[in-house]
Amino acid sequence: MNKHIHFIGICGVAMSALAVAFHKEGWEVSGSDVGFFPPISDYLKDNNISFYPGWHPEKMTAKGDPDIVVVGNVAGSGNAEFIYTRKHNLNYKSYPEVIAEHIVQSKSLVCAGTYGKTSTAALLTLILKNADLNPTYMFGGLSANLPISAKIKLGLPGVAVAKPGWSVLEGDEYKTARWDSRPKFKLYSPTHLLLTSVSWDHADIYPTEETYFNAFKDLTAMLPAHGLIVACADAPNMNKILSSNTNGCKVITYGKNQTADYYYFDVKQTKDGVNFKIQNKRRVSMDVTRHDSAESNKTYELASPVLGEHMAENICGCFAMASELEIENSVILKTIAEFKGIKRRLEKRFDGDIIVYDDLGHSPAKAAATLRTLRAIYPHNKIVAVFEPNTGNRKSQSIPGYDNAFSNADEVIIPALTRIKINPKDIDPPFDGERLTEIASKTNPKVMYIKDDDKLVEYIKNNLKEKDVVVFLGSHGFRGMIEKLIYLHQPLRT
User: How many alpha carbons lie under 13 Å from residue 55 in its C-beta half-sphere?
Assistant: First the structure.
């Protein structure tokens, strides 16, 4: 009989990825959540994962007690399934613990940073796969190039397993679980670290910049002496973070700065992608067995189908890491040209009478980067942004970040904010939609609060004209609003 794993909070991007990975390796998989929305709900259905809404111990145990219960952060102390799990002494774990046990290998490549960790983890996974290194992997998003977002290292008897050696992981700095305040990436035992730009985020977990940066300093301190850090030289606090590299592992830099070991330039954004150049200032290898050993000061021209100058930075970091791993340049460049990005990263969902984008930009800084890209692509089109921040960006510490964050939008709509549990003792509770609207309105164009989802969709339908652009920015999926808007704008069929 197959082993059974149950996920409390299966509709999160990371939890759904793990669920599918275990299913692919022959496990019986089930899951529950408070709600299910595309694209994750479609991803689960397409992979024949059994799930249901709400918290029902009787459904969780319909085929007997699960061998493992994976408890997502959505499960509070009053969650009925979590209560049952603890009462009956079932084997429960956080999903970072499951990753550490079932995915992390001896060569652990972790992509971490405030921005770009999902995209870089997905691209590096694809590069290593194309280089026949067959890594285990995990990243929190749906890739257009890979059918699944995670692969575990151990299957059931008779099931093929991944080649031992490499794992590629998205290293999230958020807390591991309600009972474990460690950053998730601390559980992944990195030997190789791609460190993207780092700027203060998740104020609900890290109340000050110092506490946030300290988490990354602790991460760099984990690298062994034989390890490798590839770090973004453009990040203003990177030197401070790297100062904790006390084991003395090799550090390579990348970015726009010409002093970086790998620097990118001549970035050109089009509707079809981003074109740019990378100069490799290092002679990575003198290995005569390589057909294309890296040359110092060699310049490479790259064309990527993904959107955004920030993706040029991410790709440059992946190019640097893969080059330092002595993967052939032909493999690296071909993979970059084929990489179509991650769903909900400036994903164009509809191009008809209006244009609809979906993006994970759940902080003012991420929203600003997305809007800069859209303005470069559509300099003369009206752009409307629907923005819902994550919890950390609903705290008073985040208010300065909203200054001019939406300067490239013509209108900003704040929807009903996803309900979160509020500690009655919290002296700085997360602000609601009305307060967020007030904050954003101080330095930005027209900002309005539309609490009702149906009225929000109706407003957009009635106020956008031919080839106007609307972009949904946030991490919660918008409760089907995108799908309804697209449906209303589909051409009439006879």
Answer: 17
What's the CA gap between 355 and 489, in Å, rounded? 10
For 42, the 3-state DSSP assignment is helix
Dump strand ranges (E) for 345-426: 347-351, 355-359, 383-388, 411-414
Question: Residue 237 is part of a domain; what is its CATH number?
Answer: 3.40.1190.10
Q: Which amino acid is at 8?
A: I
Q: Are the C-beta atoms of 198 and 115 separated by less than 8 Å?
A: no
Q: What is the DSSP letter of 417?
A: P
What's the predicted TM-score (pTM) here? 0.81
Give yes or no for a contact between 337 and 330, defined as CB atoms under 8 angstroms apart. no
Q: Which residues pair with 304 in a beta bridge?
A: 274
Tell whether 394 and 437 lie within a shared domain: yes
Whether the Cβ atoms of residue 485 and residue 457 lie closer than 8 Å to each other: yes
What CATH number is associated with residue 70? 3.40.50.720
Q: For the segment 343-376, what is each residue's pLDDT rounded down to a tens digit?
A: 888 888 888 889 999 988 888 888 998 999 899 8
pLDDT digits (tens, 9 = 90+) for 160-178: 454 459 999 999 998 998 8
The enclosing H or E element of 440 equals helix 433-441
Element (H, E) at 338: helix 329-338
SS3 439: helix
